[in-house]
Amino acid sequence: MSEFRDEVQSEAVEYEPISVKDLLIETKDTSELLIDLAYSAVLHNSQDIANEVIELERAMDVLQMRSRMSLLLASRNPAEAEQLAPVLGMVAGAEKISDAAGDIAKVVLEEIGLPDAVRQALPEAIETVARGSVADDSPYAGRTLLDIDLESETGVRVIAIRRGNGWIMNPGPETVIEAGDVAILRGPLNALQEVFETLTCEAYEVTEFEETDHPDFLERAVDSIVLMKDLSELAVDLAYTSVLLDSSELAEEVHHLEVEVDALRSRFEAWVLQAAADAEDPVRLRGLLHLGFATETISDAAIEISEGILRDIDVHPVTQAAVQESDELMIRVEVDEGSDLEGTAVEMGVPEAIPAISVLAIRRPQEGWLLMADGSTTLRTGDIVIGKGTATAVEGFDEAGTT
User: Fold this and answer.
1) Mind listing the pLDDT tens digit for each residue in 11-26?
2) Helix, strand and coil percent figures for the chain, each rounded to 5
3) What is the value of pTM for the model shown?
4) Domains of the chain and CATH, by start
């Protein structure tokens, strides 16, 4: 156990009032940011980003403890205890995600061996995320995000800010960027480079890897870990949404995803062992195994988050308030024969019939999961489509899938 972890465990945590609604939102946002940062640390081999994972893991530990305190106080009778059970599942699942993200960060922090093939494959799987400290003389310092208008001007978004030991998740238009803040940025690489340099007054270093040939078994193992990562992230997103919407259908899709990740991990381990037999330095494959274990843990956490919904336990009514504050909702639609969605082309996640919806994945009978971030297909009868969009777009998409 690290010295840092010993320090965290000795930190005193006192009760602070927190509503179930705020608990849901902050837990979900923190979990998703942990996953983003952990894989970005591996992609860029960045100790700075890996250290932010550890800082955020520490914040999650405190949030989980305060959440348990608040939930215990909120339960006044057996009926409310039953309704809050799914929220406790969220807390437990978030703890698993936090620990898994910390394990992924250790691949960088403890310099565990990792084949270059992994980093060559990851850029196709994740968005560009960067971490930068706001310089004293940055043009952004002392201004609100609304005044800077960063997202509209560049497509780059500030997804979180660490100010001292505290975190600001999903900062809003009135959030002021202060000198010394650590900002987490996400956006297109070219635009992100320019924003990073304006923010930090330092050049952004692009991580480049030399393209090399790798043994077939290693290529298969790397392809598997990238797919496991994408499916696990989708499972977490669906799990939280299943609680927020009290949707057993979405919770069932989490179960399907977890089964797929388990099957992938079995094949992944076999390919890694076969690759080790031919590797000049098998020890460099340790990091790949490390990623595999942590990634499967994330999908297991998604099951824990959605378990209460799978068991048909009604969630607390206050979760509806959290849904109302969400800009986007997720939806599961089964394509009926003769519906408007049947035969609709989907390019890069955008369905021709309703372009306001983003199609994240399709579960196709007999074929398994199709991830749509960079793919194309035509919807068929029986397809289970997972989409995301505004409340109005989601409603229209649901109607288009039925006859």
Assistant:
1) 666 667 667 777 778 8
2) 55, 15, 30
3) 0.82
4) 3-115+218-319 (1.20.58.220), 127-200 (3.30.70.1450), 327-400 (3.30.70.1450)
